[in-house]
Amino acid sequence: MGVPDGDIAKGKKLFVQKCAQCHVVEKGAKHKTGPNLNGLFGRQTGQAPGFSYTQANISKGITWGRDTLFEYLENPKKYIPGTKMVFAGIKKKQERVDLISYLEDATK
Description:
The chain is an all-alpha fold. It has five helices and no strands. α3 (about 65-75) packs across α5.
């Protein structure tokens, strides 16, 4: 598919508004309701050390990247049925692109 580059600053703002209540991106930070997203890109679903995932998340078996996140963030429960992530998703394509660009930069 090829997700284009987005605006990192806008993505950070979206992260703070929509994600930060459950996730952190800082290396070594403790998990919250959701897992720490540091090291997300290139990691398989359900693999953040020390986080208790649903079997659905573990079994999905995909590797997180721009394309998989683009699809997942639109509707997490459709992409991974049985996930415990209670988030409706982000319908606007540009918002997903911006958020993914921020995550790619912030989780290295």
